[in-house]
Amino acid sequence: MKRKTIAGLVGAVLGAAVVAAPAHAQDVKIGLMAAISGPIAALAPPMAAASKLAVAHVNEQGGILNGGKLEAVLGDSACNPQNATDTATKAVNIDRVLAIVGPACSGAVLATANSVAVPAGVLLITPSGTSPEITKLADKDLVFRTLPSDDYQGRALARTLKARGIEKVAVAYLNNDYGKGLAESFKAEFEANGGTLAGYSGHEEGKASYRSELATLARGGADTLVIFDYGDGTGLTILRQSLENGFFKTFVGADGMKSEGLVKSIGAQNLDGFFVSAPVGEASASLDNFNKAYKAAGENIDAVFATTSYDAAFLAALAIEKAGGDKAKLAESLRAVAMAPGEPIMAGEWAKAKQLIAEGKDIDYKGAGGDHEFDAAGDVPGKYAFFKVSGTGYESVADMQ
Amino acid sequence: MDLLGLANYAVFMAILIGIYALLALGLNIQWGFTGLFNAGIAGFFAVGAYASAILTSLPASGRLGGYELPLVVGWLAAMAAAALIAWPIGKICLRFRSDYLAIATIGVAEIIRLVIRTEGWLTGGVRGVTGIPRPFGDLDYMPSQIAYLAIVATLVLVAYLLVERQVKSPWGRMMRAIRDNELAAAAMGKQVEARRLQAFVFGSALMGLAGALFVHFNRSVTPEAIDPMIATFLIWIMLILGGSGNNRGAILGAAVIWIIWSVSELLTDRLPTEVAVQAKYARVFIIGLTLQLVLRFRPEGILPERQPGAPPHR
Known about the structure:
The complex is a heterodimer of chains A (401) and B (314). Chain A has 401 residues and is of the alpha/beta class. Chain A is built from 13 helices and 14 strands. Chain B contains 13 helices and two strands. A two-stranded antiparallel sheet of chain B has the order 1-2. In chain B, helix 1 packs parallel to helix 6 (141-168) and helix 2 packs across helix 9 (192-218). Chains A and B meet through helix 1, helix 2, strand 2, helix 3 and helix 4 of A and helix 1, helix 6, helix 9, strand 2 and helix 11 of B.
């Protein structure tokens, strides 16, 4: 340890003496911090594939800066802060990346932003960290995300229910950052608008029966149960057991509950009173572009966070192009290329974007996963719609405000 | 790859090695000298982490905290909290022999993790605690890392010297006696249970300090950080590889394992992209393989235990 320390210090002194030479080579690297091992390992390969697709689009259509190649450095953030900071430190210091796409989990995003990306002045865009804590980071405007904070959806859902005349609900949420984040923002907004929560409780994943929890919630006297859970997992069990026992009449879920497997499993005829909120992409042409290319790459277009991963990598590349490779200008360049006004750019239109940037024109990237109009904290507002079950799938009933 | 970047990376690695070295030293007191199989390191790490986080962080709505106390208070409180949690656990569980104690401590760590996840008023729940100060955190990237390394290195050195002094004293000999032959030690009038409890509490306090150092480095803590893989089993591997019963071995083991863990990713990055995703698992395999090889060919670890007065091994 002591020797290591001394070696580190000597290295530091030597390093400080050598001024970091600006990169003359035109090749540019970005880091992809996917959670390859760890609890969400199943989500990582499609996310990494989507980000790599964006990199491939850049390289196929003229490359980055003066014909350089964009290279993606794949790191394993393992969904925990120890591995995420380690892999990000390597990406920033050894591979000299200009931007990081990821990490995937919110806790890893917080740690990486605090101890690596922000001190080192590297842009960080997470495609899947949804914790509202990320909004509050003192990040020198370097931390962005391409999907809305859980806060938006919970609040929008609360307002929608109020507007539909529902005054009293019970809430059952899965006790993880997704379920709890939604439940808390829903609760705050619903109560602020004069609604009543007749029950509010979290549950753990994977139990065989939730009847006792549901019975407790039903005792509050509400007709509507709001479920913040996953429709392919525990949420299905909860919905089925509520229906079987007649605990509630109406059920409302968030995007995690919008599952076609759920409709198939319970049957559309039993789901008259089931509604979900889910994000809707506005720039559908952009989403079509992405879906076509992603399918051609042999991936499943329904993969979670695929569109946001693509957009995060594409935006990072656009920002680097706009900034001319200058690290100090990345944040303002990202805002310039992602936000209105400007010539709209769809997913996959790298050559057009490059051309416009070279001509000095303003562009506005309309991503596959949303418009990405960042607010002051680097968050994007979500566009949500309210869906009901129709046939084997879902049909939009109303837009949510 | 340039020198400045390499140095930054080296400093970062050294900080994490220092934090893991504290954990390994704590475990060495418990396992190396006293023979207590603590498989719940993550729990004590978490208690220290959250204790310091709550006491020193900025105010936030919806959870306890925002006392903005000085860091030193937070770190002392981290050690005290971990020790306080360890005391009743030890009181109940230390009557079990080794493997039963392992099961009990795994359970305790899991309970602590679930309490942290669910009791949002105390710990911020799954969202964790943010706004934790980092000493010298306002400096630039490299000076700030070096300053933090200096703090961690000092604390590791102090912990090492104190533990070393303690185990060289009659107390240390007594602990070894209890470890090697409990009945004989009891027959000689040593209070076996009280001594084991002491070792359990001391070791846990060091683990709590490591937790505090970790959260101040990252300025945030979430339950994701108390994954048993990275906060319990990795430390066991470090201690076994370095040499349990030898404090230098514990520190060396932390360094070797963390360097293998971290640097092996740089090597797998050189593989073609088609296998890059699978290759990330190779380092988990390398760690496992290293442990197997050590247990097969050098079960006493790289630096074996030195018995005071005994001729060196070999």
